Amino acid sequence: QSWHTTDQFENLDKHSQWGIDFLERYAKFVKERLEIEQTYAKQLRSLVKKYCPKRSKDDEPRFTSCLSFYSILNELNDYSGQREVVAEEMGHKVYGELMRYSQDLKAERKHHLQEGRKTQQYLDQCWKHMDNSKKKFERECKEAEKSQLIYERLDNDINATKSEVEKAKSQLYLRQHMAEESKNEYAAQLQNFNSEQWKHFNVAIPQIFKNLQDMDERRTVKLGEMYRSFAEVERRVIPIISKCLEGMVTAAKNVDEHRDSGIVVESFKSGFEPPGDFPFEDFSQNIQRTGSDGAIGTPKTEGGKADPKHAVGRTKNKLWLFGKKPKVSFTNTFHSNHLSEMRNAKSKIPSFRTVKRGVRAPTLEDLSHLPPEQRRKKLQQRIDELNKELQKEMDQRDALNKMKDVYEKNPQMGDPGSLQPKISETICNMEKLRSEIHKNESWLAEVEGKHGSRSERRSSADVNHHAPHGRESPEGSYTDDHSQEHRSPPQPDPHEFDDEFDDDDPLPAIGHCKALYSFDGSNEGTLVMKENEVLYVIEEDKGDGWTRVRKQGGEEGYIPTSYVEITLEKNSKGAVTYI
């Protein structure tokens, strides 16, 4: 129903004001909503920044689980960017538009209300004019009636003079004339008021109400459009958000446990060969045996020769320090050595933890403190870096020579002699780098040559495993030169192990080790050891690079794991060698 059927101007005034207030209330809701989006996006970006790697790409782990997590962080960062887009679109297309439209509505409403008030004021003015003319007509009529009574009284009075009668008669005519004019004026004012009143209620006010109605309907339509825009802002980013979520799912699918295990193997592969078999050394050859002794002695095969297998089986407990000879496999060697370094176990001696952290194995220039495979990788990496630096120096030298040629051809551009010190310095740096590269290449060739010779010796040991090898240690692991600076440790006396084995004093040892290098043990809790010294292992390396040992004299302490060759006894069934 159209609003012009009602004359409740004030009610419409209140309703239009309520409509504008409701629109601004919705605008406030949108503002708070976009502020939530902004805060959410900011917190997401802070979260991504907190967990993003802060190290260089070369130092980052290459595991698929880590790479997938970083991919998820990148997708989450893109996702937070879409939340920022939502907040920006809401602020520009919804909240900003609502606030602009609200200002326009206020101005339009004010104009319509002013027009309504002007129309009402004009009608009130017409009514006042009509009322004044009516009152004047009433007064003039009363005065004319009064003059008529006076004239009639004087006209009937015989004592009244003729001049008095004439005067009353002229007064009567005057009053009647004025009453007639007042009557005409009142009639005109009344007609005018009725006309203006009809225009007011049938034209002006309905038009004003119609304008207010149109304004309110446009406000309602605008709200509907803003509701739709509010939803469209979210809908437009859904495809990109879906791609971000799909990227996270793809990153999760890219996690490959086998590849990660391969990276661990490649990273910690030492390159050492597994130890060869120990030969049987028969010390009973000079002992004359009786018939009964022969019955329980070493079994003989046809031809009177001892069976090496049976001989080893009967005497290996005697030869081995802590029980039976270990059965070592390359897989056990790798997993026992390198996976144990990855464990995050707490030390059994908390008071010694801080001391151990301050002690580090010496880092030698030729990296001989590292296992062969790791040493080879580090040397190759160092050579590649030196080659890159050398190439930079060569490029700089070429650039300086070109600049020198330009200066010689055009002396006004500069002095060629000023470049000579820099050229000389660059050439000197190149020579130093070439020397470093040559030195590292010789170390690399040494490592690769030793690796090949070790493989050959291993093959020959598999064929002639009964022959004694002077390069093998009694502990059951192969020892070789670790650098040009360190000489090969001498072979310890084999009877030393027999003496220790025959000791009746039981020791809580889990294995033994042989010192590859000397260690001064200057820090508290550490133990001094000499090169080739044999020690008892009483506590394994917990992943921090230290092993607890006991000397034959009973002194205990910690030594660097990388300084010794360790053989651990596992339940008296075999040993695992750490190199």
Automatic annotation (TrEMBL):
Q: Name one GO cellular component term.
A: cell cortex
The protein's matches in Gene3D superfamilies, at most eight in alphabetical order, are given as: 6.10.140.470, Arfaptin homology (AH) domain/BAR domain, SH3 Domains
UniProt keywords (A-Z) are:
Cell membrane, Coiled coil, Cytoplasm, Cytoskeleton, Endocytosis, Lipid-binding, Membrane, SH3 domain
Per the record, the domain of life is Eukaryota
Q: Which InterPro entries match?
A: AH/BAR_dom_sf, F_BAR_dom, FCH_dom, HR1_CIP4_FNBP1L, HR1_rho-bd, HR1_TOCA, SH3-like_dom_sf, SH3_domain
One GO BP annotation here?
A: signal transduction
- Coiled-coil boundaries: 376-410
Which residue intervals define the domain REM-1 in the entry?
369-446
Stretch list, region Disordered: 291-311, 445-505
Q: What Pfam family does this protein match (any one)?
A: SH3_1
As for subcellular location, the record says: Cell membrane; Cytoplasm, Cell cortex; Cytoplasm, Cytoskeleton
Query: Is Cell membrane found in the keyword set?
Result: yes
For bias type Basic and acidic residues, the affected ranges are: 445-488
Specify the F-BAR domain's residue ranges. Answer: 1-260
Q: Which PANTHER family match?
A: FCH AND DOUBLE SH3 DOMAINS PROTEIN, FORMIN-BINDING PROTEIN 1-LIKE
Q: What family classification does the UniProt entry report for this protein?
A: Belongs to the FNBP1 family.
Q: From the Swiss-Prot or TrEMBL record, give the protein name.
A: Formin-binding protein 1-like
What taxonomic classification does the UniProt entry list for its organism?
Eukaryota, Metazoa, Chordata, Craniata, Vertebrata
